Amino acid sequence: MKDWFGLVARLVTGGVWIVAGALKLPYPADSVRAVRAYDLLPETVVPAVGHLLPVVEVVIGLCLVLGVLVRSASAVSALLFVAFIIGISSAWARGLSIDCGCFGGGGEIPDAAAKYPGEIARDVGLLALSVWLVVRPRSRLALDTVLFRSSPDHDTDHDHDLDTDHDIEGSLDGAEEDLAQDR
């Protein structure tokens, strides 16, 4: 069941990242304007962040949807959601009325504060899914399982209940057999 939840978490979070980034890619000036509107970063880094953020979002989204480097992509995803929650909360606390720029757009808009609670709630939910994937990156239909397949003898997945007594006995029996063959 956990593997299926992980798949859903990957697809939802990854899908949101792909859509958010893809909507911003064709309009880099809007993305820069959205970053600038938060008035949190030094002006010298605003253009770089505005241009790079959509690319990073698409890459993270593709990694999650395909199930490649899930733990790393989820960690970056979680960090970005924390940053976005802080940014929106900061804008709200400072009385700024700006479009979050999450799915394109950005800049000042009237009555934006009414949207802040929903935007924060959405990002908290996506943060929770990202954290789940950091803790439990293995899921169904992930390329990681093909690319980084572990041998049955060296299975590191602690999600499976192991009968340790049987495993120890089995390995001892195998060692005794190897010793007998050497004699």
% residues in beta strands = under 5%
Q: Kindly state the mean pLDDT as a whole number?
A: 83
Oligomer: single chain
What's the count of strands? 2
Strands of the widest sheet, in order across it, are 1-2
Number of helices in the DSSP assignment: 7
Uncertain parts: 153-183
The structural class is mainly alpha
Q: Could you estimate the helical fraction of the residues in percent?
A: 55-70%
**Rg of Cα set:** 23 Å
Termini separation comes to: 48 Å
Helix/strand order: HHHHEEHHH
Shape: elongated
The major beta sheet can be summarized as: 2 strands, antiparallel
If you had to describe this structure to a student in words, what would you say it looks like?
This protein is mostly helical and 183 residues long. Strands 1-2 form a two-stranded antiparallel sheet. It is elongated. The chain is built from 7 helices and 2 strands. 66% of the residues lie in helices and 2% in strands.
Features:
single chain; 183 residues; mainly alpha; two-stranded antiparallel sheet; 7 helices; 66% helix; disordered C terminus
Topology:
Blueprint: H1 2-24, H2 28-37, H3 46-66, H4 70-93, E1 98-99, E2 107-108, H5 116-135, H6 144-147, H7 164-182
Antiparallel strand pairs: 1-2
Task: Produce a short descriptive summary.
The protein is mainly alpha-helical and 183 residues long.
